[in-house]
Design a protein that fits this description.
With 601 residues, the protein is α+β, with helices and mostly antiparallel strands. The chain folds into three domains: 11-367, Alkaline Phosphatase, subunit A, CATH 3.40.720.10; 382-441, no CATH class; 448-599, Jelly Rolls. The strands form seven sheets. It has a ten-stranded mixed β-sheet, with helices on both faces. Strands 20, 22, 25, 27, 28 and 30 form a six-stranded mixed β-sheet that branches. Strands 16-17-18-19 form a four-stranded antiparallel β-sheet, covered by helices on one side. α4 (189-203) packs parallel to α6 and α5 packs across α6 (249-275). The longest helix is centred in the middle third of the chain and has 27 residues, at 249-275.
């Protein structure tokens, strides 16, 4: 097993070992208000992360197309960061928040097919707070690994409810993961995730808690409840994309409706804190993971999600801690997702778990008004081997153009020739940083892990279709395998089995009545199990009726039925878990969503 740059780690090295973790205290105290002072309870933490919400998708930033009063209240009652930077896409931002380190260091190379996994030797913010005695819970889109020991329950979270991949195909009553087991969600997904976060807060009101609410909206598919979409269904936005003809107004309407739903749920969380009389001692932090997922109003910035220009990586950041962070604080110094772990641990007065150096720095001096001598810094952005770097004044883009972000925030004038010293300095910094980071985002040779927990789910996202087998969509995250029409076809998973033994194998399938009865075999080295695909199960596709905008490259949803294949003996080690057809009863074997392997006692 080679899941980290430093070799294999056992499951026990990443599970709930807070007391054994090495700790690095952060410099500085809390000016006599430290949460560690005698008799003081450490602050609770609530972190809310939006998905694909741009900087411009909040009314606090000047967008009059929508209203987000609850999110805006965090700036009124706390601090708003004017220049806060995340990554160009989802999983890397989550990794940087979790670790305080640039995402390549943790093995996060992409957003699907295993490239999104955070190395198991990285210590997370949840492990930091768990080691300090906090109850820890995460509710939403994880996107940094699915199988144990990558699963959130293995990364410091006592409680997990949500989905672990990069996007989900259905937002109403979807199938979700609750502490590693499949369950059925209730209602609209953002409301449901918020319900569980609120329940977690209520259940842990008498002890410090760390509540992480990583929502999955306004990421596509663009599904919003009717009561939110109705307001925007005929909206002609007054504030438009910098190049209006680029904007898809139906997409804007759906995104704004989803953002207002997020705001309502933020309001519910804040009200619960008020009702439980926890607000005064709870740090609430709100941010988003990348730029907007369509061209819409974003303050005139260049770029959107997927780019390393300002519009692709500048995001909202609002943070409230009543009586500790002055009201209506506006912070102009640049900051990034890498800063959130050291900042929150510093505010809470607890040491950071682990021994690896952080790339981020505590923002506490800026939040408390002690940052007069803060100084300048560089924040780097990387996407698909494109690197951009930002200082307080300048941005050097991925092709070497230099922009003065004070006088030209829209990146319209390249001043590299007019400011050669600044361009040379930043170009040199990019070269050095790239030399260190780019080798870490090469091909991903890590296998998928089996047997680190009793139940291992191997979705189609993590498999490979061989022969004529193909995915149901070009986006792997919520796809299934289809077009299995030939006996030479294969579906394989590159796996590493941690514990040899007997495993119950379940195949999640659909199959029309005319095709039922094909014989299939699942094998791993000498271990084999065979079964016939049936009974017939041919449910309709679900999702199109909820979509406010037609999907592009994302699969629709359908209900898959588990077929108990029997017991397969798996040897310890790495190899190909292979699903193949022995006979084909009709035109096809059927569609495949996942293999589930349950280790027998």
């Amino acid at each position: 097993m080679n899941h980290t740059a430093n070799g294999a780690l056992s499951r026990r090295h990443v599970l709930r070992t807070g007391a054994a973790l090495a700790a690095i205290p952060l410099a500085g105290g809390w000016n006599g208000l430290s949460a560690q002072t005698a008799g003081a309870r450490r602050p609770n933490i609530v972190v809310i992360l939006a998905d694909d919400q741009g900087w411009g998708d909040l009314s606090v930033h000047g967008n009059t197309n929508l209203s987000t009063p609850n999110i805006d209240s965090l700036a009124r009652d706390g601090a708003l960061f004017d220049r806060f930077y995340v990554c160009a896409v989802c999983a890397p931002t989550r990794a940087e928040f979790l670790t305080g380190r640039y995402h390549p260091r943790g093995g996060v190379r992409g957003v699907s097919t295993g490239a999104e996994r955070l190395n198991v030797d990285e210590k997370t913010i949840a492990q930091t707070f768990k080691a300090a005695g906090y109850a820890t819970g995460a509710f939403g889109k994880w996107h940094n690994g699915s199988q144990s020991p990558y699963h959130p329950n293995d990364r410091g979270f006592d409680e997990y409810y949500g989905f672990t991949s990069g996007h989900w195909g259905l937002y109403f009553d979807p199938e979700l993961d609750h502490n590693g087991k499949l369950v059925r969600g209730k209602g609209y997904i953002t409301d449901d995730l918020s319900d569980h976060a609120i329940d977690f807060i209520s259940s842990n009101k008498d002890r410090p808690f760390f509540c992480y609410l990583p929502l999955n909206t306004p990421h596509s598919p663009m599904q919003a409840p009717e009561k939110y979409f109705e307001k925007f269904s005929r909206l002609e936005p007054k504030m438009r994309s910098t190049i209006p003809e680029q904007e898809e107004v139906p997409m804007t309407r759906a995104a704004l409706a989803m953002c207002e739903n997020i705001d309502w749920n933020v309001g519910r969380v804040l009200k619960k804190l008020d009702d439980l009389k926890l607000a005064a001692n709870t740090i609430v932090l709100y941010f988003s993971d990348n730029g907007p997922n369509s061209w819409r109003w974003n303050g005139g910035m260049k770029g959107r999600k997927g780019t390393v220009d300002e519009g692709g990586v500048r995001a909202p950041l609002l943070i409230r801690w009543p009586d500790r962070i002055p009201r209506a604080t506006k912070i102009k110094q640049i900051a990034g997702a890498i800063d959130l772990l050291p900042t929150l641990s510093d505010l809470a007065g607890i040491p950071v778990a682990g021994t690896k150096p952080l790339d981020g720095k505590s923002l506490k001096p800026l939040l408390t008004g002690e940052g007069a001598d803060w100084g300048d810094r560089m924040i780097f952005s990387l996407q698909a081997k494109r690197i951009s770097v930002r200082t307080q004044r300048y941005r050097l883009d991925s092709v070497g153009a230099l922009f003065d972000m004070v006088s030209d925030p829209g990146q319209t004038r390249d001043i590299a020739n007019a400011k050669p010293e600044a361009a040379e300095k930043l170009s040199g910094a990019v070269a050095r940083w790239g030399k260190e980071m780019l080798p870490l985002v090469g091909a991903d040779d890590r296998p998928f892990t089996v047997g680190y927990a009793v139940l291992t789910l191997l979705p189609a996202r993590d498999g490979v279709g061989e022969g004529r087998v193909k995915r149901s969509s070009s986006a792997p995250n919520c796809s299934y395998f289809t077009n299995w029409t030939n006996r030479e076809d294969r579906i394989t998973w590159d796996v590493e089995v941690a514990q040899a033994g007997e495993y119950e194998a379940d195949l999640y399938y659909t199959c029309p009545a005319a095709d039922a009865g094909s014989a299939v075999e699942l094998s791993f080295f000498e271990g084999k199990v065979q079964a016939k695909v049936g009974p017939a199960h041919d449910p309709p596709l679900i999702g199109k009726g909820f979509d406010r905008v037609d999907r592009k490259g994302e699969s629709y949803w359908k209900e898959f039925k588990p077929l108990a294949m029997g017991t397969i003996r798996l040897r310890k080690g790495r190899g190909k878990l292979t699903l193949r057809a022995l006979t084909i009863a009709g035109k096809q074997v059927g569609d495949v969503r996942r293999i589930a392997l349950t280790r027998k006692a």
